[in-house]
Specification:
Length: 265
């Protein structure tokens, strides 16, 4: 397939449309049907492929997303970088609804998700020590500060299966570990991007305090999550547009594109 995009963007809950003047491209994958077609448009001199990970009508719950098909489609389209914004809950009082967190670590608390392309007979073992692209993270932080966004430069996202939200006891445990963010889709999406030698980036838009931070504020509801996300969607889009415009994609110095080459044992 000919290259159709430079950068991929996944849209989460409340984020179903990104670009105007798009071309809709359907991609078949060895792993089944992706969540949606790629919606391809331009930002500056770069072609961008957008896919709503829950489908445009939000009909796919987080534990049913075909993450491998979605990431494969981005790779097949020619993307070098994949940005994964998501609605997320806060586990710490200083990380407030409306804040952005540029996560640098994840904790996998999911169950039963197919989380790798490595099915044999060739076996490699990619490192997840630093799961997100350092250059994309630096660009996101710089851009967010220039735009005046309330932004946290680091954070650990714990990923739960969904679709249910946490109990208060679960949330209290996650908070006690010092983790900042909770979400249902950040894994295995970013790790699969890494396995495919593309640069992964997580941008968590905080929409709520998880389980009310054990009673201090009202427990989360889906309607409140969407309301808070809608209120901050313009800021998220501005962050993404500005980042992508300033991304020097042909001169990146990171090692993300060499993961599969250095992971054999």
């Amino acid at each position: 397939m000919k290259k159709i995009a430079d950068v991929g963007v996944f849209g989460g809950s409340g984020f179903y449309k990104f670009l105007d003047n798009i071309e809709e491209v359907k991609i078949d994958t060895p792993y089944g049907e992706p969540s949606d077609a790629l919606l391809v448009g331009k930002i500056g001199d770069k072609k961008v492929a957008f896919m709503p990970r829950h489908k445009r009508d939000h009909s796919i719950p987080p534990h049913k997303i075909n993450y491998r098909a979605n990431v494969w489609a981005m790779k097949e389209a020619g993307c070098k970088c994949v940005i994964s914004p998501c609605a997320a809950g806060s586990l710490q009082k200083d990380v407030k609804p409306g804040d952005f967190v540029i996560c640098d670590q994840f904790v996998d608390w999911t169950d039963g998700r197919i989380a790798t392309f490595i099915d044999g007979p060739k076996v490699i073992h990619p490192s997840s020590a630093d799961p997100y692209c350092p250059e994309l993270r630096a660009l996101a932080i710089k851009t967010g500060k220039e735009l005046g966004l309330k932004l946290h430069e680091t954070g650990t996202v714990v990923v739960v299966n969904g679709p249910r939200f946490s109990t208060k006891s679960e949330s209290k445990f996650f908070t006690s570990q010092g983790w900042e963010v909770i979400n249902m889709t950040a894994y295995p999406e970013a790790y699969l991007v890494r396995e495919m030698d593309m640069c992964p980036l997580n941008i968590s838009l905080i929409t709520d305090y998880d389980a009310g931070l054990v009673g201090d504020v009202p427990p989360v509801s889906h309607s409140e999550v969407i309301k808070m996300f809608d209120n901050n969607l313009d800021s998220l889009k501005k962050l993404l547009f500005t980042m992508i415009e300033n991304l020097d994609i042909d001169n990146m110095k990171c090692k993300c594109h060499e993961v599969s080459k250095v992971s054999g044992v």
